[in-house]
Specification:
single chain, alpha/beta, 3-stranded parallel beta sheet, about 25% strand, globular
């Protein structure tokens, strides 16, 4: 995602989603994964105000441990069964992994950032397999989600 501007668009969308969560007084958590690392960037808590300085350190590249990231998300969601649990996956669809939908997610949304000349539609395929909502990042409005 870092070479084609997708990471910058994903960061912008992340800021918009977090802003919407802040307005709704929702609880949020943030997992980032790239290379072989899955990092809990924001432990579960009530959403707060966000800014560009906070998302600037988020990086990309080196492959995507999608299955491991989804597994960690499921573990986080399991701990919060007392509220409705949403899973938002922002992806460029370049991972060949196709993990199962986390059983702890009450609602799942896959946001695709694919920009390849010959699209593989992996994000859409994953959304279909998960019975999740698919949103194209180019046309996505967080306020409508």
């Amino acid at each position: 995602m870092r070479n084609d501007g997708g990471l910058a668009r994903a960061k912008g969308l992340l800021l918009a989603l977090m802003d919407e969560a802040y307005r709704r007084r929702d609880h949020v958590a943030l997992l980032c994964f790239a290379g072989s690392v899955v990092e809990l960037r924001l432990p579960p808590r009530r959403a707060s105000a966000w800014n560009d300085d906070w998302v600037a350190p988020i990086g990309a590249g080196g492959g995507t441990p999608l299955a491991l990231g989804v597994q960690r998300a499921d573990e986080l969601l399991k701990r919060h069964a007392d509220r409705r649990r949403w899973l938002w996956l922002l992806t460029d669809g370049r991972s060949a992994e196709s993990p199962a939908r986390p059983g702890s997610a009450d609602v799942a949304c896959v946001v695709g950032f694919e920009t390849a000349r010959v699209p593989l539609h992996r994000a859409q395929s994953l959304a279909a397999a998960w019975d999740a909502r698919y949103l194209d990042a180019a046309a996505f409005d967080p306020a409508q989600a």
